DNA sequence: TATGCGTAGT
């Protein structure tokens, strides 16, 4: 009697656990992690299945560390617990951790082997994946062959994939589809179509993959034709074609298809929404969003990201607050938006509230501080960051370098255990930008000794250093290094050579490089025009501009900086004014501060100071230091003390720490006999603690 | 009821 009662109680408890486990899985699968966790914590009895379900739920939501903690707490781990933990590591790209678990587990089944093969294959470690497959004792399951085939195919090794497909004992539809997906994702559409025709069996996945292949190849007609032949298209087939029309901007046809769909799910709605948002059809998007029968976190994120991109940060924030989900993507999108608008406090607010932060997130916030010139804050955050990656270090180095603090940049660089090309290039280009060209070249030599990782960017910086030093012979050496390294065929390299030769006064050699280039791009033309302009050959610069137009290359903003400065150097006032006007009228380019600086310089040289000043006052954008500097320079030549004083004040506001501005104004005062003013200026320099930027003496 | 290989949306 008592025994029967006890058995009954135990059975009731078991079925209660069973039911709770079902609910736990349901919550986890519908994305309700917090609710799942609450249920799990409140369960009076848990079995291994409960732990395994919770572990997978945590892993699926990016909480790898929590999943691992739970794994370590499981009282009676079974094979599924080990497999689930390996899957979690694999999904997060933690190959070494997966391998460690795999080696430590007490027994292995088909799942374990398939997971390990898949883990290596997804990490691109095809050799290790194959070794694992070959090590499987006894009969291998179909899934593990398929994992290997998928690995080969996704990495473009189609022959290996097909060979294994032929060798395996019992290929199934997944095996065939695994090859097909490799072909379609790698844009091998012709071979994919051929393979598709030869497949002994096809299911909906095969048809949908082929559809996707045509969409990716941009062949919407072929996709639509195939769609007509799909025996009974399912919602994925419809969505694939719909997405094709949306991505191609063919929104009318997309909407027609959407309206014709026999069944729509949240994905169909999201694709249609994305189509409108891609084209900035905000009204349509809002209408669709309000009509959606259900919205998931992707629907909200799509909408919020679009608002962020459109610069509507307040609307994006309001929407984020209304969102009933917790979406990392939506929050980080808004954070990005804030950082781009330099709203650093709002960005930091989101960052601090994030429950999970990945390296990208930390690096974004750090580079946000750098972007706002708040280097101390960037450094503090960098020091707090738990797992710094190369990007974190490089961001900080570039930040200090661009701020002129080369001593700090180098200090951080030297603390790095490992460096990549970006680390070296940040330091080298930092030296060049700060006028420390010898140091740049010195570091190039160190880089060659440490590792041969120089790329076109390295050479571009070094060539620029040579140009600034007018070190023609060293420049020629870089030219030959560039030839030997093979980067010469890169248009970036060719363009930096053009600039270097031009800056060394060798405009003919610059022209020769230009003529020998395989394909001149807009940057090449700009470099040549600027080269002629800075060599005082304004007329020739303008004729290169004409040549460029004749070649059908459309000038951009940079082109006009070169052209306007050419006019300025050559004293072609009316020509310059005409170009400045044609920029907006003919080419719909909005002038930026640099163009205004050129125009001020142009008018200033001709003594037309009041016109220059009027131009500055009429600017649609805030004049920068270059503009005021140009005006100040012109005032000096033409002895206009009053305007000089005004321009200088503006300049001091913008660049309070730049000595040369103070010196320039002091000289203007002195030249016009105002010795008191000159003396005052020198005192001001001392008072404001303005000093020359520190060099690197002693730190290398 | 929990873990593996192939298809759609940020």
Mind explaining what this structure looks like?
With 700 residues, the protein is mainly α. The protein has a domain at 610-700: Serine Threonine Protein Phosphatase 5, Tetratricopeptide repeat (Alpha Horseshoe). The longest helix has 28 residues, at 2-29. Mean pLDDT is 90; it is low at 690-700.
Element layout with pairings:
Elements: H1 2-29, H2 33-42, H3 48-60, H4 64-73, H5 79-91, H6 95-104, H7 110-122, H8 126-135, H9 142-154, H10 158-167, H11 173-185, H12 189-198, H13 204-216, H14 220-229, H15 235-247, H16 251-260, H17 266-278, H18 282-291, H19 297-309, H20 313-322, H21 328-340, H22 344-353, H23 359-371, H24 375-384, H25 390-402, H26 406-415, H27 421-433, H28 437-450, H29 456-469, H30 472-485, H31 491-503, H32 507-516, H33 522-534, H34 538-550, H35 557-570, H36 573-585, H37 593-605, H38 609-617, H39 625-637, H40 641-654, H41 659-671, H42 675-687
Helix pairs in contact: 1-2, 1-3, 2-3, 3-4, 3-5, 4-5, 5-6, 5-7, 6-7, 7-8, 7-9, 8-9, 9-10, 9-11, 10-11, 11-12, 11-13, 12-13, 13-14, 13-15, 14-15, 15-16, 15-17, 16-17, 17-18, 17-19, 19-20, 19-21, 20-21, 21-22, 21-23, 22-23, 23-24, 23-25, 24-25, 25-26, 25-27, 26-27, 27-28, 27-29, ...
The chain binds one DNA strand of 10 nucleotides through helix 1, helix 3, helix 5, helix 7 and helix 9.
List keywords for this structure.
700 residues; mainly alpha; Serine Threonine Protein Phosphatase 5, Tetratricopeptide repeat; 42 helices; elongated; DNA-binding; Pentacotripeptide-repeat region of PRORP domain-containing protein; repeat; RNA binding; PPR_rpt
């Amino acid at each position: 009697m008592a025994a029967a009662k006890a058995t009954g109680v135990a059975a009731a408890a078991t079925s209660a656990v069973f039911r709770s486990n079902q609910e736990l899985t349901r919550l986890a699968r519908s994305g309700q992690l917090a609710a799942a966790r609450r249920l799990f914590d409140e369960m009076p009895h848990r079995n291994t299945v409960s732990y395994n379900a919770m572990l997978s739920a945590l892993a699926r939501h990016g909480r790898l560390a929590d999943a691992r903690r739970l794994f370590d707490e499981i009282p009676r781990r079974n094979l599924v617990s080990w497999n689930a933990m390996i899957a979690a590591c694999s999904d997060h790209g933690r190959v070494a951790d997966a391998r460690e678990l795999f080696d430590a587990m007490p027994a292995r089944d088909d799942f374990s082997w398939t997971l390990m093969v898949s883990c290596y294959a997804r990490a691109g470690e095809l050799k290790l994946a194959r070794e694992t497959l070959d090590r499987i004792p006894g009969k291998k399951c179909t899934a593990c062959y398929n994992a290997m085939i998928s690995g080969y195919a996704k990495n473009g090794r189609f022959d290996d994939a097909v060979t294994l497909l032929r060798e395996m004992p019992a290929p199934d539809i997944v095996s065939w589809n695994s090859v097909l997906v490799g072909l379609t994702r790698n844009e091998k559409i012709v071979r994919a179509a051929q393979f598709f025709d030869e497949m002994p069996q096809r299911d909906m996945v095969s048809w949908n993959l082929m559809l996707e292949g045509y969409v990716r190849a941009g062949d919407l007609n072929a996709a639509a034709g195939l769609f007509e032949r799909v025996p009974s298209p399912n919602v994925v087939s419809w969505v694939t074609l719909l997405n094709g029309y949306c991505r191609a901007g063919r929104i009318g046809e997309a909407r027609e298809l959407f309206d014709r769909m026999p069944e729509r799910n949240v994905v169909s709605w999201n694709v249609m929404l994305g189509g409108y948002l891609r084209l900035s059809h905000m009204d349509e998007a809002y209408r669709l969003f309000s009509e959606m029968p259900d919205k998931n976190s992707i629907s909200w994120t799509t909408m919020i990201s679009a608002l962020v991109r459109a610069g509507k940060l307040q609307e994006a924030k309001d929407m984020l607050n209304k969102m009933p989900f917790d979406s990392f993507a939506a929050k980080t999108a808004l954070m990005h938006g804030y950082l781009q608008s330099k709203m650093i406090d709002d960005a930091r607010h989101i960052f601090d509230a994030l429950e999970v932060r990945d390296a990208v997130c930390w690096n974004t916030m750090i580079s946000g501080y750098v972007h706002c010139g708040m280097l101390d804050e960037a450094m503090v955050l960098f020091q707090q960051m738990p797992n710094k990656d190369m990007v974190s270090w490089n961001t900080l180095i570039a930040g200090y370098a661009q701020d002129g603090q080369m001593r700090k940049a180098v200090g951080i660089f030297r603390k790095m255990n490992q460096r990549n090309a970006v680390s070296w290039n940040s330091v080298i280009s930092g030296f060049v930008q700060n006028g420390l060209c010898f140091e740049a070249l010195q570091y190039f030599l160190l880089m060659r000794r440490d590792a041969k990782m120089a790329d076109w960017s390295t050479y571009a910086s070094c060539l620029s250093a040579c140009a600034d030093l007018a070190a023609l012979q060293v420049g020629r050496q870089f030219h030959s290094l560039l030839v030997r390294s093979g980067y010469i065929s890169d248009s970036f390299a060719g363009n930096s050579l053009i600039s270097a030769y031009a800056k060394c006064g060798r405009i003919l050699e610059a022209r020769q490089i230009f003529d020998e280039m395989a394909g001149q791009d807009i940057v090449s033309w700009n470099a040549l025009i600027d080269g002629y302009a800075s060599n005082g050959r304004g007329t020739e610069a303008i004729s290169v501009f004409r040549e460029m137009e004749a070649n059908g290359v459309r000038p951009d903003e940079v082109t006009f900086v070169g052209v306007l400065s050419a006019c300025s150097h050559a004293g072609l006032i009316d020509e310059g004014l005409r170009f400045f006007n044609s920029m907006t009228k003919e080419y719909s380019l909005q002038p930026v501060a640099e163009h205004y600086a050129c125009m001020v310089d142009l008018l200033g040289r001709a003594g037309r100071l009041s016109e220059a000043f009027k131009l500055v006052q009429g600017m649609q954008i805030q004049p920068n230091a270059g503009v005021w500097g140009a005006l100040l320079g012109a005032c000096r030549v033409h002895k206009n003390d009053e305007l000089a004083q005004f321009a200088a004040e503006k300049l001091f506001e913008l660049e309070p720490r730049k000595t040369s501005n103070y010196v320039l104004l002091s000289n203007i005062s002195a030249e016009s006999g105002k010795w008191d003013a000159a003396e005052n200026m020198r005192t001001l320099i001392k008072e404001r603690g303005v000093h020359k930027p520190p060099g690197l003496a002693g730190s290398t």
